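ingest -> validate -> predict -> emit
validate: passed (alphabet ok, no gaps, 230 aa)
predict: started
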Amino acid sequence: MNKNLPALIIGLVAIVGIVAGVYLYQNSKADTNPVAKINSNANANSQNTMKTAPPGAEPPWTKGAPNATVTLEEFADFECPSCGSFEPTMREVKTVYGDRIRVIFRQYPLQMHQHAYDAARAAEAAGLQGKFWEMHDMLYDKQKSWSKEMPDARKEFENYAKALNLNVDKFNSDLTGDAANSRVAADKKRGDFIGIRATPSLFLNGRLLSVEEMQITKLRELIENGLQGK
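emit:
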């Protein structure tokens, strides 16, 4: 028997341990920022995937010109704190660029958020009365009021419907109806196909942006480049 065999085995075990340790360390670091991890994994193939993805809710909720050279497509969850923090960036972009760009909002409620699906359906129910964006803005503006320790947020959403002068009976009916639910499901299906697992996720002309690229200064730079055809 080779006398060096035990040492060889010990050496191989050590190497395997080191490789496994590095792998786990890298994964643990990536997990601290789920959006970054997803963007890193998906970005290379995002444009090809977008071409074959289900269309999502039709027609989508949009702002800006349909034929704009720059399209931003956002997948978001109304209860997500990160989405709430990102919302001022999207509002600035919409204000600064107006009809020069096209902005699409996609529903991507996460199971981890208690009221996310109801909030998504509330926005869709308002949309059935022509006030999607108004409800969209109100849900974000008042996010901390309805997303914290509230057993049932629907009553709060009803108050928002009243403030927006919606037909409240129709709003309550639509909130749990097939039309709103199917639109949320269609957007979710599109997001699932693309591979989104965290919110917010933002695409510029079909390319998934990194967390760094979603910062306002960099985002405006990318939009400017897109408008100039770069």
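Residues 17 and 87 are 44 Å apart (CA to CA).
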